Automatic annotation (TrEMBL):
GO molecular function, a single term: ATP binding
Organism lineage string: Bacteria, Pseudomonadati, Pseudomonadota, Gammaproteobacteria, Lysobacterales
Domain of life of the source: Bacteria
Protein name: ABC transporter ATP-binding protein/permease
Coiled-coil regions listed: none
Domain named ABC transporter: residues: 343-580
Transmembrane intervals: 29-48, 68-89, 143-163, 169-189, 247-269, 281-302
SMART domains the UniProt entry points to: AAA (SM00382)
Subcellular location: Cell membrane
Length: 600
């Protein structure tokens, strides 16, 4: 085996060892556990020798009390030291897993949005929970068995050799033959473990989607379809589990048969040697007891091998994730102070990763000036959402540049750039937590209840918040399902009043609302938009008409720009949409009707 292969396959090298080292387990606790383990092993090793002494004293005239006392001390010391070792290593192990999970969560949160386009939510959850759980089993329970087993096995073999070399060689030969059969089975378990983890991750992804969109599933009576998808993965996990069980069925019986054969052979051969006077009956008794000391760690080591293969597969996936590039955090980036600059797209083109080269935006040049409202108009799929994503720096342009005050926005730190942007989206996402938590979500610093209530009043949310059972402390469930759409929007707007951004993005902020609620939300938005750089995407043409400037997008390009009156005169497609909105189609406008006539 070459050095590279050894590095990959060694127990103390490779991804698993790197992850454990990255978790920085407590050296003090590890040292204490090692010391305790030495005491436990020493006591266990002393027990057969003390038993030998007691047995040999019987023919010589009786057992001495001190021998019985030493035997009791050895048994008690072994039990107490073993329990202490288990507790100390468990503390270390759970600390390692907690640190790994923390590292993994921080890593996933820091990944660019493009990474979430490649993997589902369930995949990320599976990495943090299931894969870390595999490592948890290894470093908490199996690490204890490994340490005590190695020490006990090494000590027992050493003492056995001192007792009788020939009997020891007979025992080791039986175990060696069994291990030659077990090693290939352990290698097979590694592949099965990886398959199980992959299948489990896919099942987690399906369930995450189904549970988070349960209303959609039920509304379209798609329970049978989703049950089928889940059943396919569940059945796959079951089949792999059965294959693993078949492999495991052979491992422990092989080791047990080898030990039983060794015990029978040693008893027969040892009895012959006792009859010849080569060894005493006490020596044979001690030897049989030491076989138990050998058998226990051997069985534990075989089980450790199976768990190690599972953890090895999980660690490879985790290590790969930890090596993924996070969002740009250049040390040369500057903190963007409170400013009112012009946001500009200059010849920007963009293709989504994996989009097979098709450009969503092509040579887009536009400006968003402070103190004005700019609307993005066009049929769905023509690049409006992509422009918003580029502003937020969820993606980077393929070509061209996005500038702020004449400087590339990449000159500023991500945190300071995004802190100057306020985003009110369609549906206004709500996080599980209190009303207070949602209004202050993502904001730094402390906010008094008076400040929060003032923001709620500005957003038109104070009335319904005051009617809630616990006011600001009322708990909101996942996706805000105990709120109406208008209430969610007004909580999102209240958050913007506290955030006080320079750039305000309104992405279909008034869609799917009844006329009265829409009127209330528009009043709150009108107050929020004062003095800011406002970017609006809306289906509602009345919102677009009030914009200072409008950009019309078609096929990822700007096909028209100007205010409402200018576009209505010069842009046939926009004029057609305006006419349809007011239910009057000018006879002199003869344009090819596109597949979608949606404004937003």
């Amino acid at each position: 085996m070459n050095r590279a292969a050894a590095n990959r396959s060694g127990l103390f090298r490779g991804p698993l060892a790197q992850l454990i080292r990255a978790a920085r387990p407590s050296r003090t606790l590890l040292a204490a556990a090692a010391a305790s383990s030495f005491v436990a092993v020493a006591s266990t090793l002393a027990f057969p020798m003390l038993t030998k002494q007691v047995v040999d004293q019987i023919p010589a005239g009786g057992v001495q009390p001190v021998s019985i006392a030493l035997l009791a001390v050895a048994l008690t010391g072994s039990a107490l030291a073993t329990a202490l070792t288990a507790y100390l290593l468990s503390r270390v192990g759970y600390g390692v897993v907690a640190t790994l999970r923390g590292l993994l969560v921080r890593k996933v949160v820091a990944l660019p949005v493009a990474a979430f386009d490649r993997n589902s939510t369930g995949d990320w959850v599976s990495r943090v929970l299931n894969d870390c759980q595999s490592i948890s089993e290894l470093v908490t329970r199996e690490a204890i068995n490994l340490l005590t087993s190695v020490l006990l096995l090494a000590g027992s073999v050493t003492v056995l050799i001192l007792l009788d070399v020939r009997l020891t060689l007979m025992l080791l030969g039986s175990l060696g033959c069994a291990f030659l059969l077990v090693i290939p089975l352990g290698m097979l378990l590694e592949g099965l473990a990886r398959s199980t983890q992959d299948r489990t991750a896919r099942l987690g992804a399906i369930l995450t989607h189904v549970f988070s969109e349960i209303r959609l599933v039920k509304a379209f009576t798609a329970e049978t379809r989703e049950n089928g998808r889940s059943d396919e993965e569940i059945e796959g996990i079951r089949r792999i589990g059965i294959r693993q069980a078949k492999v495991n069925v052979w491992i422990e019986p092989l080791m047990t048969l080898a030990l039983m054969a060794a015990v029978i052979a040693i008893l027969v051969y040892g009895a012959m040697r006792v009859s010849k006077g080569d060894i005493t009956i006490g020596t044979l008794t001690a030897f049989v007891l030491y076989i138990i000391n050998v058998a226990t760690p051997v069985v534990q080591l075989t089980h450790f091998t199976a768990e190690f293969q599972k953890a090895k597969g999980a660690s490879t996936r985790i290590a790969s994730l930890l090596q993924d590039a996070v969002e740009d955090t250049s040390p040369q980036a500057e903190v963007l102070e409170h400013a009112r600059g012009t946001l500009e797209f200059r010849d920007v083109s963009f293709s989504y990763p994996g989009g097979q080269g098709s450009k969503v935006l092509q040579d887009v040049t536009l400006q968003f000036r402070p103190g004005t409202t700019t609307a993005l108009v066009g049929a769905s799929g023509n690049g409006k959402t992509t422009i918003l994503s580029l502003i937020e720096r969820f993606y980077e342009p393929s070509d061209g540049a996005v500038l702020y005050d004449g400087r590339p926005i990449t000159d500023f730190t991500l945190a300071s750039w995004r802190s100057r942007i306020g985003y009110v989206a369609q549906g206004a996402p709500i996080m599980p937590g209190s009303v207070r938590d949602n209004i202050t979500y993502g904001l730094t610093g402390s906010y008094s209840d008076e400040m929060i209530l003032e923001a709620a009043a500005q957003a038109g949310a104070l009335d319904f918040i005051s009617r809630m059972p616990e006011g600001l402390d009322t708990q909101l469930i996942e996706q805000g399902n105990n709120l109406s759409g208008g209430q969610r929007q007004r909580i999102a707007i209240a958050r913007m009043f506290l955030r006080n951004p320079d750039i305000l993005i309104l992405d279909e902020a008034t869609s799917s609302l009844d006329s009265e609620t829409e009127h209330q939300v528009k009043q709150a938005l009108a107050l929020l938009m004062k003095g800011r750089t406002n970017i609006v995407v809306a289906h509602n043409l009345t919102t677009v008409m009030q914009a200072d400037w409008i950009y019309f997008l078609e096929s990822g390009r700007i096909s028209g720009m100007g205010n409402h009156e200018e576009l209505n005169r010069t842009h046939p497609y926009y004029a057609r949409l305006v006419a349809r909105y007011f239910q009057r189609v000018p006879e002199n406008i003869a344009v090819l009707e596109p597949a979608s006539t949606a404004i937003g």
